[in-house]
Amino acid sequence: LEAEYERRTPTSKEHFEEARTYLPGGDTREVTYVDPYPTFVEEASGCTLTTADGEELLDFLNNYTQSVLGHAPPTVVDAVTERFARGNGLAAPTTEATELARRIVERVPSVETVRFANSGTEATMNAIRAAIAHTGNEHVLKLDGAFHGTHDTVLVGVEDEGRENPGVPTTVEERVSTVPFNDTKALVEAFERHGDDLACFIVDPIMGNAGMIPPREGFLETARDLTADTDTLLLFDEVMTFRMDPGGAQERYGIRPDLTAFGKFIGGGLPAGAFGGREDVMSVFDPATGSVTHSGTFNANPATMVGGAATLDALDGNAIERLNDLGATARERLEAVCADAEVPAQVTGDASFLNVHFTDDEVRDARTGTTHEAITERFSLAMRNRGVFVADRGLVNLSTPMGEPEIDALVDAVEGALADLSTAAAF
Ligand code: PMP
């Protein structure tokens, strides 16, 4: 697999070697660091990436679900460039922020007011801060293996490939606890132990980082009941899952959290995050009534706001339904491919997300999935050699320019990649 990859990508190799001189690891983003070196991409349009090596790749990664409309969607490009040309970064409010906030509040019933930031990391960080300020408690409960960005609190319990978190103070670890996803019993026990001290329980309604694992019936409901009983705030991380329904995963699964974090496409492809929820909680940010700091040079940057609004306008209920149907078709067809493969493989997911796991055992949490094992990296390499770009960890997600032909191409590539793995002695 590596030899074929190196044959196809000599320019990427050259670019990577040059990049390593100036950038530690040759990159600035962990997830784009792959063995033996990453593919450099020069441009993208719709669902196609053009690499530095002149290859066209079908993009089933979509910047880890951000490019839900595909790349360079014309209405978003027009809105952003028009706004940017009229001045950006104004250190004053603009109506564009109100417009995007209104759209989010109208779509997500649990969100009464919302604030903007520049990443999903900032969104979860500020939402947790709001929870601590509102409740007066400092302990945070999270899911084992869930990724919510790169601030200290949420790095506890991520353990990507067995690494601890050097750089995160041990005092932070003392005030964060974790529970396995989909384990209702463990959840009840965690609330028995920490219920009185918790500020919030931050939940990925479908576990993204651990491999697009959907919630089992009753898990999110129990989380809602236990948080309500202990005056703990339930914080949904919908950075990825907002695309599952016009009102996000919380509408799809029928749970009303107290706070929600958003990111990815919320800024139309420009760096963005947002967090919102109950008005009484969010009022900690209102300088007239609260005193929690939320500052940021680029918060609610006008070009980002219009990009987000144009994206939400395009991603209406019909677009989401079509995308989710396409996702269901893809999962069904890939399940059949996995069942016939010589290597143990299965597909998890929901809506327009799916993830390939290399195990026959049931995948229900971060421990039972195989997303961070070497095998998924080899799978992604095999897929790339076949012209399909997926995440190193087996994540696949769809974008609105896609249709049946792209699903055909995906299914063919997965079939071929699984055959490559069975002959490449990958296990
Ligand atoms: N939460 C979830 C569920 C995510 O998937 C991510 C990023 N992949 C984040 C938070 C962090 O977002 P960002 O990379 O924009 O900081």
UniProtKB/TrEMBL annotation:
Pathway: Porphyrin-containing compound metabolism; protoporphyrin-IX biosynthesis; 5-aminolevulinate from L-glutamyl-tRNA(Glu): step 2/2. Its cofactor is pyridoxal 5'-phosphate. GO terms for molecular function: glutamate-1-semialdehyde 2,1-aminomutase activity; transaminase activity. Residues 4-15 have a biased composition (Basic and acidic residues). Pfam families: Aminotran_3. Its EC number is 5.4.3.8. InterPro entries: Aminotrans_3, PyrdxlP-dep_Trfase, PyrdxlP-dep_Trfase_major, PyrdxlP-dep_Trfase_small. Keywords: Aminotransferase, Isomerase, Porphyrin biosynthesis, Pyridoxal phosphate, Transferase. One of its GO terms (biological process) is porphyrin-containing compound biosynthetic process. This is Glutamate-1-semialdehyde 2,1-aminomutase.
